[in-house]
Design brief:
about 350 residues; Rossmann fold; six-stranded mixed β-sheet; 12 helices
Length: about 350
C-alpha cells in the first residue's frame, strides 16, 4: 500500500517518513520532490516561468503516479510518500491514478499549531542559509500558511489527522504506525482501470427548471463531469447512460434516452480516445433533485450550472461537447462531432 503523509511545510513529513520506514518492515521512502527537482533541470525556462509551483505541472503529477506504480511493482510492500498536497483536484488526479492500478492508499495529515509550524520553517530556512543551501526544492512564499489553512476543511474530511505538536519524528511515526494498524486514513476510491484501447462512453445531461445542466464532481480525478461512464461490452450506449445515472445519483430515467451528440475523440498519446455520446436525460423535478444520492467513494458533489458557469468547471473538450449538445437540444436534432466540432459546419452555428 501507499502511505501518503500530507501536511504543510515544517510539520515534519520527511523526518517522520524516515522514522516510519524503520517501524514498517519492507517499507520504502519515496520523495516526490525529486521529480520536481528533475523537471526543473529538464523543462525549458519559459515553461517553468508559467507556474509558481511544480505541482501545477501535469507532467509532475503524471510522473508521480507512474513512478510510484513502477516502484510498487518492483518492490511491493509499503511506499511511504511525504508530500504536501493542498489542491483537491491534484489529490484526485494522483490518488485516482493509484486506484486505477488497484494500489490501496492511506492518507494521513500531519498537523501542528501555526506558531510551531512557522518557527520550524524559519529555523530550517536560517540553517539552510548558513549552509548555503536551499531550504526546500519548492519556494515557500511568506504567506505559505494561508493555502494550508484554506485547504484544511477538505483535508480533515479526506485524511486521518495526526498531531505532531511537541513530538519528535520517532514519536510522530509511532502515532502514524498505530493509526495504520487501526485502519485509519483508508481511501475508498472507485477503481477506474486505465484504458488500453479506444473506449465508448455515455454521458447524460440532466436539467433543472431553469435549464441549467447538472455536473458532478468525481473523487477519483480532477475536474467536473457529466453523469455517465464507460459503456460495458455488449451494452447499448443509451442504456449505459441510464445505468450510470441510477448508480451515481439514484435516479431512474426513462429508456431509451434521446441522443444529442456523438463525438469521436482521436487518441492523443499517452491518452486513448474513442466515442463519446451525450444524451438528453430531461428536466428533473424538485422532488427528484431532493432525492439525489452521492456514492461517497465516487462523487463528492453535484451542482446545476449555466453554460457560462460550466466553462470554468469542465475541461476544454467536455466544454465543446456540452456547447454543441445544448445547440442540438435547442434544434431537436443530434449532431455528429469529431474532436468536439461538427463534421459539417452549419453557417448559422455559433
Amino acid at each position: 500500500m501507499i502511505v501518503w503523509l500530507n501536511g504543510t511545510s515544517g510539520v515534519g513529513k520527511t523526518s517522520t517518513a524516515r522514522a516510519l520506514c524503520e517501524l514498517l518492515p519492507g517499507s520504502t521512502l519515496f520523495d516526490p520532490e525529486l521529480i520536481g527537482k528533475g523537471l526543473r533541470m529538464m523543462l525549458p525556462r519559459q515553461r517553468l516561468a508559467e507556474v509558481t509551483d511544480y505541482q501545477e505541472l501535469p507532467t509532475w503529477r503524471r510522473l508521480v503516479v507512474d513512478t510510484v506504480v513502477a516502484l510498487y511493482a518492483e518492490l511491493g510492500g509499503v511506499l511511504v510518500v511525504p508530500m504536501t498536497l493542498l489542491q483537491q483536484d491534484h489529490r484526485d488526479e494522483i490518488f485516482g491514478g493509484f486506484a486505477a492500478y488497484r494500489i490501496p492508499v492511506r492518507h494521513l495529515l500531519l498537523h501542528a499549531e501555526e506558531t510551531i509550524l512557522r518557527e520550524r520553517v524559519e529555523s530550517r530556512t536560517a540553517l539552510a542559509g548558513t549552509l548555503g543551501e536551499a531550504a526546500s526544492l519548492r519556494t515557500l512564499p511568506p504567506d505559505h500558511m494561508t493555502p494550508y489553512q484554506a485547504a484544511l476543511p477538505w483535508l480533515r474530511a479526506d485524511a486521518h489527522l495526526v498531531r505532531t505538536d511537541g513530538l519528535t519524528p520517532g514519536e510522530a511515526a509511532a502515532r502514524v504506525a498505530e493509526a495504520l494498524r487501526e485502519g485509519a486514513g483508508t481511501c475508498t476510491l472507485v477503481q477506474t482501470l486505465k484504458p488500453t484501447a479506444e473506449t465508448v462512453a455515455a454521458g447524460v445531461l440532466l436539467f433543472d427548471d431553469e435549464d441549467r445542466v447538472l455536473l458532478v464532481d468525481p473523487t477519483y480525478k480532477s475536474g467536473w463531469e457529466f453523469p455517465g461512464g464507460v459503456v460495458e461490452p455488449g451494452e447499448a450506449p443509451a442504456r449505459a447512460g441510464v445505468r450510470e445515472v441510477a448508480e451515481e445519483l439514484g435516479l431512474d430515467l426513462p429508456d431509451p434516452l434521446r441522443l444529442l451528440v456523438l463525438d469521436w475523440q482521436p487518441s492523443q498519446p499517452p491518452q486513448y480516445g474513442g466515442l463519446r455520446l451525450l444524451f438528453d436525460g430531461g428536466r428533473l423535478t424538485e422532488h427528484q433533485i431532493g432525492k439525489l444520492l452521492l456514492p461517497a467513494d465516487e462523487l463528492r458533489g453535484w451542482r446545476f450550472v449555466t453554460e457560462a458557469e460550466a466553462t470554468s468547471l469542465l475541461s476544454p473538450d467536455r466544454m465543446r461537447r456540452l456547447t454543441w449538445a445544448l445547440r442540438a437540444r435547442e434544434r431537436n436534432h443530434p449532431l455528429n462531432l469529431e474532436a468536439g466540432q461538427p463534421v459539417a459546419l452549419d453557417p448559422t452555428s455559433p
